[in-house]
Each structure stands twice: as structure tokens, then as C-alpha cells.
Amino acid sequence: MRVLFVCLGNICRSPTAEGVFRHLLETRGLEHRVSVESCGLGPWHVGKGPDSRAREAALRRGIDLSTLRARQLADDDFYRFDYLLAMDHDNLAAIEARRPADSQAHVGLFLAFAGQADGAVPDPYYGGDNGFETVLDLVEAASLGLIEEVEARLERGS
């Protein structure tokens, strides 16, 4: 099972989601059955680490994002991943516009897994430090819901 988190630049929201989800997979012993990555829609930050504020906020919760590096969404991601999860509606529209007709991946909003079918993870880049805490709270809630679905799919063998 492969999960890809997608935001605009891959330095705040999607690497936070990657780190939180990976951490939760490890706590449940699923890290060898599910792989997780993140990417951005644009090329602005390719090769760079997450925003320092995102790293610091995550580290306060015991999650280390320091090894992550930004990359851009690639055409083969639609075939390599089972889930492509967008942080907001604009991200989702951009992913859907690029999605090949024969892709079998689940493409949707990440917050749908937190019971917020129309919800968006707000971009904290231009805000204060509280925005990064909010992102962590939302990402954790959605990650727990996603893990439930992934575990069920793994049990079914799908």
C-alpha cells in the first residue's frame, strides 16, 4: 500500500502529513506494509527540507521531519500510489486535472478521513506559529482515519 500527500510547495502541509502518518504507522507496526511520501504541485522548493516552523512544531510532538526533501508531483505517481491525498480544494483540482483516465488511485481530500468531506488543511506559510499547530491537529485526525481504512484494506488483501 502506498500513500502520497500533496500540497502546493511540499514544505509545510504535505511533509507534515507524511511525518505524522509515518509516525502513526510505526506505532501500529505497519511501517513495512505501507509506504508514504509527499510532494508539491510546483517546483519552487524541490530538494529543500520542510519549513523550519513545520519542523519545530512537529518535533515538539516527537516527529522528526528533518530528513524529508521536497519533490514535485510526477506523472507516474498516479500509477505508483494507491492514494493521492490533497491538502485543499485547489490542490485537488490540480491533481484531478493531471490524472490519467486509466489511473486506479484514490484521489481526494485528506481531511475526508477526519470526517470533513469538504475540509481543507489551511496553508500556514504566511501565518503565525499557531497555524502549524492547527495543521498538526488536523493532519493527526485525518491520519488516524486513514490508518483505519488502510488497515481494513490490508486485512481484506486489497
Note the main attributes of this structure.
alpha/beta; protein-tyrosine-phosphatase; Ptyr_pPase; Rossmann fold; 5 helices; four-stranded parallel beta sheet; protein phosphatase; protein tyrosine phosphatase activity; 13% strand
Which SSEs are present, and which pair or pack?
Elements: E1 2-7, H1 13-27, E2 35-40, H2 52-60, H3 77-80, E3 83-86, H4 89-98, E4 106-109, H5 129-156
Parallel strand pairs: 1-2, 1-3, 3-4
Family: Belongs to the low molecular weight phosphotyrosine protein phosphatase family.
EC number: 3.1.3.48
Organism: Halomonas korlensis
What do these coordinates show?
By secondary structure, the chain is α/β, with parallel strands linked by helices. The protein has a single domain (2-156), classed as Rossmann fold (3-Layer(aba) Sandwich), CATH 3.40.50. 42% of the residues lie in helices and 13% in strands. It has helices at 13-27, 52-60, 77-80, 89-98, 129-156; strands spanning 2-7, 35-40, 83-86, 106-109. The protein has a four-stranded parallel sheet with strand order 2-1-3-4. α1 (13-27) crosses α5. The radius of gyration is 14 Å and the shape is globular. The N and C termini lie close together (9 Å).
